Amino acid sequence: MKEFLVQETIVTATGVRLARNNNQTIQIQKRTLDFLHWITDNHPEVSIFKLVGVKDTGANITVEVKFSKWNGRSYLYHPEIVSPVPYNDDKVPIDEETIQKLQNEIIRKHDVEHLPARSKLKSIKDIDLFTATNIYLYERRMCLIRTMKLMGLRPEELHELPLELNNNIRRTKQITAPTRKRGDPSLVRRFKIDFPSARRFNQYLEARQEYIDFLQSKGIYCLQPNNFFIGENGKALKKSSITKEFDRLCEGAGLTSSRVCLSMFRHRFVTREINIRLEARFAKKPHLKNGWTPELRDSVCLEVAELTGHADPDSLYNYFYAEYKAITSISSYSEKLRIRDELESAKEDLVNLEHQSRLRKIDLTSELQLIRTRINEMHSKLFGFE
After folding, report:
1. What's the pTM?
2. 244 in the same domain as 95
3. Same domain, 207 and 336
């Protein structure tokens, strides 16, 4: 089983790649052991010998019972469980160029005028339904990218965003998200956002409600109307559907040659949040730039862990070390990061204007291209030689 999980490949539009990384393989192995252990305890009649058990119990699979040093919970350990992906390979923040490619792919997928003939077949039966669905799916996919940039959520947290706590974002300028993998479903995190981000977030909520209202006018009702994300034609949307949709966007954007996954948004978020807190502390105590202290590291990582939902702040140490080194070795690092974010915010507005102009059939191609060119020129001047 281990060899199959590690070596399995899949064929994509751009070639052959591994089906999963080691962290995904670990989860499959652990859940399999848990399932076999459950069968052993609850259905002993299945086998004369235990399927899973500790040493000297005659079990087919011998495991050890270990306890997490973070939360004290027990778990099953087997030496054939693969090792986690190393830090340098697994914790790379997603870059702005990759995000732009993903957004361009979303625009391409929803540009009705240039869709392939087979994609337009859905419009033959009901052009209004096709148009409404196309508009909503565009907003949902853009919201996915923007929300991951803002908060770096886990996929299940993104899927379970509470609608009732996020229906007045423009006033509160705050997004509330659940915290998973902590064993306490009541844990929530709150993220402060600026007005442009609140406006874009609210844009999705308005598109969502308009789509629901349209479906109801057609006699189509949502299976899960209180969910933040809804599926095509009101169907339920599974967590796995979000991940698969992201994978398809990556394939369409030609990003399969390098591993791109939703967790890279999380790494980006952690990096930015550590940067913000380090700069705030340096402003008050400049001598901290001469060398980090355990107190500095622990206080920064604790604050960021409260936003990310990490049970143990120690797991953020590698992020801290990398960001501290970048800030203290490159004098303009943080200022460039701030300017880069402002340029990317301007690009976000351009993406939205381009979409709205297509919906309203107003040709702003030359005007938008002029602005985009100017932004790219500024970006190249600032970051072209990094």
Report:
1. 0.68
2. yes
3. no
